[in-house]
Design brief:
about 400 residues; alpha/beta; Rossmann fold; 2 domains; four-stranded parallel beta sheet; elongated
Length: about 400
């Protein structure tokens, strides 16, 4: 029986099951067997792959649930894996005609390698990729969001709202860190929706270097400004991408103990950014005699497997059905793209890759946009020159806490 295989790579995002279910339903109607692979690409490099058939009842049960029915993995095969361990018999024995992959740009690139390898061994198949990330940092055309982002932001807002209510109720401050390794879309989206008086994202440092002192002083600036306003509570949202932008020298200043990968790089994903930033804010507040209680909060893993909201249920359904359309139109080696009007088209890696490096550059927050500038000027609280005199009650040098001067804006 002819079949398709589908796997999920990278980390979870709301809507994974919606994509898998929608792909399955459309191909089942066409008479295909749908094979789900566990463990991402690792399933293709073993003689005993863990897999399950996705039938209609299974697809109908999972399409609106969070998480992924297919176990995910960040496994990235090496050249040696292809030479010695690739299970080409899986494709031949199951008459696989299409490999569907769900993940980021690494997952898409590996799909192309798999298809090329199979073609060289006289078993050509089609491969179509569905791009996902809650970070919203894939450069899809026309500012189209990546699936999972809106659902993650929505659940992040629920958590961030509760944190702000706690701050208001207890008279405390919270230092909150939100996921987003390369870009600040998620942190900015959550903070903006919740009217956080301070948000710090890596894109803010477009005219100055990221340092711990600047990050801490921006939070302190907000605390002092709110005190001047007669407000003794608040929360600051800091994107984890700010932490990842720190130099090795700055990372050492955090005092955090890192584990290191096989390349000698610190594994930044294993430490709590909120705790590190909170400790440094507390230390600075004590140094300058600023009376304030702060608490750390992480917004991360709680939102990756949340139930998708209606936006992503519709969007991911269109993406899944789009895989079927593109396959029958003869497309391969592409990503499925659905624009804001619901129009479908293939998107090829070469169209969004950097021609020099071959890598897909992250889509960054446009800090010059009206959305960002309106939030910075109308919602955020921080010291400006007009506050210098009042701020001297708390610090001797208020200009050092001037938000605009810190960023060299």
């Amino acid at each position: 029986m002819k079949s398709i295989a589908i796997l999920t790579g990278g980390g979870p995002a709301p809507g994974m099951n919606t994509v898998v279910a929608s792909v399955a339903k459309t191909f089942l109607r066409d008479g295909y067997r749908v094979i789900g692979l566990h463990g991402g690409y690792s399933a293709l490099f073993t003689t005993t792959p863990k897999m399950r058939d996705v039938d209609f009842l299974t697809a109908d049960e999972i399409f609106n649930k969070g998480g992924s029915i297919l176990r995910m993995s960040r496994f990235k095969p090496t050249d040696e894996d292809f030479e010695k361990r690739f299970n080409i018999d899986f494709f031949r024995e199951n008459e696989v005609k299409l490999l569907v992959t769900v993940g980021g740009d690494d997952t898409a690139s590996t799909a192309n390698r798999v298809a090329k390898f199979l073609e060289q061994h006289h078993y050509p198949i089609a491969n179509i990729h569905v791009p996902k990330t809650i970070d919203n940092d894939l450069p899809l055309p026309n500012s189209t969001p990546t699936f999972g982002y809106n659902s993650a932001k929505a659940q992040g807002c629920v958590l961030a709202t509760a944190v702000m209510e706690d701050a208001r109720t207890s008279g405390n401050w919270f230092v909150v860190s939100a996921m987003g390794r390369s870009a600040g879309h998620l942190a900015l989206g959550i903070a903006g929706a919740c009217h956080y008086p301070m948000v710090i994202i890596p894109e803010f440092f477009n005219k100055s270097e990221v340092t711990l002192e600047k990050i801490v002083n921006m939070v302190i600036s907000c605390i002092i400004k709110r005190k001047i306003m007669g407000v003794d509570y608040g929360a600051a949202m800091i994107s984890e991408g700010v932490f990842h932008s720190l130099s090795d020298e700055e990372l050492k200043k955090t005092g955090a103990h890192f584990s290191y990968d096989e390349h000698g790089h610190p594994e930044l994903g294993k430490v709590s950014k909120a705790h590190i930033f909170n400790d440094m804010v507390e230390k600075k507040a004590k140094e300058i005699g600023l009376k304030v209680k702060t608490r750390p909060v992480e917004i991360g893993y709680e939102i990756r497997c949340h139930t998708p909201i209606a936006y992503d249920l519709t969007y991911c359904s269109l993406l899944g059905m789009g895989v079927n359309r593109l396959f029958h139109e003869g497309h391969t080696g592409c990503m499925v793209y659905v624009d804001n009007q619901g129009n479908l088209s293939p998107l090829f890696l070469k169209d969004i890759q950097d021609p020099a490096t071959g890598k897909i550059p992250p889509r960054l927050v446009n800090v010059e946009s009206n959305k960002v500038q309106s939030y910075v000027h109308d919602i955020m609280d921080y010291i400006t020159p007009s506050d210098y005199e009042a701020a001297k009650k708390y610090v001797e040098n208020p200009e050092a806490y001037d938000f605009m001067k810190i960023l060299n804006w």
